[in-house]
Design brief:
By secondary structure, the protein is mainly alpha-helical. The protein has a single domain (3-143), classed as dinb family like domain (Four Helix Bundle (Hemerythrin (Met), subunit A), Up-down Bundle), CATH 1.20.120. 50% of the residues lie in helices and 4% in strands. It has helices spanning 3-9, 13-27, 46-64, 83-99, 118-140, 148-158, 184-191; strands at residues 106-109, 114-117. The chain has a two-stranded antiparallel ribbon with strand order 1-2. The radius of gyration is 16 Å and the shape is globular. This is TIGR03086 family metal-binding protein. It holds the Pfam family MDMPI_N.
């Protein structure tokens, strides 16, 4: 089975929920004075990165409800006074929305330039969470320890991220060359333009 067929026929919802917990475990360690710190995403402070993920959660939830073609649905993230509570609320929102969608339903993802089967869209959300969990962890200097199956699934998704969706303002940068003997997690990071040694 080729990678794209696997991604469009797999139910990623259980893995996506675990990816949410991985991400939220990193966000739970964010203190208010850390929000202005730079992150591995050159365009975003930690505040901007957290706001981006909340916006993504809300956008994917809207897409699962059949409302993804409304661009404002993808950029309304707000941290409020409690970034963790806001992140948890948006994670719960998208989890509920994904639970109600048929895996072969077509979801509008305007940031990616089209409509995609829900199974594939959920895999996109999963890779966002796994890698943004590293972004938060690297910013704070805390461990990032995703399970092997999360990394494996994210690697398959990362392999199909097109070059035109990478660059300034995007979630992912152009891919980097992994070091010899790189772990699967390090290969995932470099595939999505992250430098694993970033501090």
């Amino acid at each position: 089975m080729d990678v794209l067929t696997e991604l469009t026929t797999t139910d990623f919802r259980p893995l996506d929920r675990r990816a949410s917990e991985l991400y939220l475990s990193a966000v739970a360690q964010v203190k208010p004075d850390a929000l202005a710190l730079p992150t591995p995403c050159a365009d975003w402070t930690l505040h901007g990165l957290l706001r981006h993920q909340i916006s993504q959660d809300q956008g994917f939830a809207a897409a699962a409800r059949g409302e993804g073609d409304r661009l404002p649905a993808w950029n309304g993230g707000d941290l409020g006074d409690d970034p963790y509570a806001a992140a948890r609320a948006s994670a719960d929102l998208v989890t509920r929305a994904f639970a109600d969608v048929a895996l072969d339903a077509e979801l509008a993802l305007p940031e990616l330039g089209g409509r995609f089967p829900a199974a594939l869209a959920i895999s996109f959300h999963l890779v966002d969470l796994v890698v943004h969990a590293w972004d938060v962890a690297a910013t704070l200097g805390v461990p990032w320890e995703p399970a092997d199956d999360l990394v494996g699934a994210a690697l398959n998704v990362a392999a199909i991220v097109p070059e035109e969706s990478r660059g300034p303002g995007a979630s992912f940068a152009p891919k980097l060359e992994p070091a010899g003997g790189a772990s699967p997690g390090e290969r995932l990071l470099t595939l999505l333009g992250r430098e694993p040694s970033w501090r």
